Amino acid sequence: MDKLTDEKIMYEVQHGQLSAMTELFDRYHVPVYNFFLRLTMDRSTSEDLTQNLFYRIIRYRQSFSTTAGTFKSWMYQMARNLHADHCRNKQRMAAVERQTDSFEDIADLKHGFEESDFKKLKNALSALGSVDRELIVLSRYEGLKYADIAKMKNMSLGSVKVQIHRALKQLRHFYFNQENDR
């Protein structure tokens, strides 16, 4: 039996079958939680933001349109907006960037990591600026296409490619400088 696409499930949700939202929650609550965790570096805040995101999806379900993109890109745009609102409201952006010690993560369900490598990657990721970190999280952790990210951030595709290239270069620099510090 073929699995329903996200867009078909969202169509059902838009037409009053709110129980269909359970499937989208099952598909995305862990990736969305990890998205928020990588941006906020706080478990409790990430749990709250994840919960709020799914409330917003239900609340604004009528605004979703397949002509504007995929469900996944629409959902991550909403997640970005929610994170920005959170930072603005709490004025935590500066504090979030300093909170590397409380950064915990859910292990990737498909791939294992060496704990020391993962910690070095987390430290390198947290050393990036918020814009670069968000681009890497969206492209590398959440698997969004550059075109989707460009649409989300209202940027050209070329600018997104250049910024991600520079962010990855900087991430590599931070990662390997930790190697040299040992």
Automatic annotation (TrEMBL):
<dbReference type="InterPro" id="IPR007627">
    <property type="entry name" value="RNA_pol_sigma70_r2"/>
</dbReference>
<dbReference type="GO" id="GO:0016987">
    <property type="term" value="F:sigma factor activity"/>
</dbReference>
<dbReference type="GO" id="GO:0006352">
    <property type="term" value="P:DNA-templated transcription initiation"/>
</dbReference>
<keyword id="KW-0731">Sigma factor</keyword>
<dbReference type="Pfam" id="PF04542">
    <property type="entry name" value="Sigma70_r2"/>
</dbReference>
<dbReference type="GO" id="GO:0003677">
    <property type="term" value="F:DNA binding"/>
</dbReference>
<dbReference type="InterPro" id="IPR039425">
    <property type="entry name" value="RNA_pol_sigma-70-like"/>
</dbReference>
<dbReference type="Pfam" id="PF08281">
    <property type="entry name" value="Sigma70_r4_2"/>
</dbReference>
<keyword id="KW-0238">DNA-binding</keyword>
<dbReference type="InterPro" id="IPR014284">
    <property type="entry name" value="RNA_pol_sigma-70_dom"/>
</dbReference>
<dbReference type="InterPro" id="IPR036388">
    <property type="entry name" value="WH-like_DNA-bd_sf"/>
</dbReference>
<dbReference type="InterPro" id="IPR013249">
    <property type="entry name" value="RNA_pol_sigma70_r4_t2"/>
</dbReference>
<dbReference type="InterPro" id="IPR013325">
    <property type="entry name" value="RNA_pol_sigma_r2"/>
</dbReference>
<feature type="domain" description="RNA polymerase sigma factor 70 region 4 type 2">
    <location>
        <begin position="120"/>
        <end position="171"/>
    </location>
</feature>
<keyword id="KW-0804">Transcription</keyword>
<feature type="domain" description="RNA polymerase sigma-70 region 2">
    <location>
        <begin position="24"/>
        <end position="92"/>
    </location>
</feature>
<keyword id="KW-0805">Transcription regulation</keyword>
<comment type="similarity">
    <text>Belongs to the sigma-70 factor family. ECF subfamily.</text>
</comment>
<dbReference type="InterPro" id="IPR013324">
    <property type="entry name" value="RNA_pol_sigma_r3/r4-like"/>
</dbReference>
<protein>
    <submittedName>
        <fullName>RNA polymerase sigma factor</fullName>
    </submittedName>
</protein>
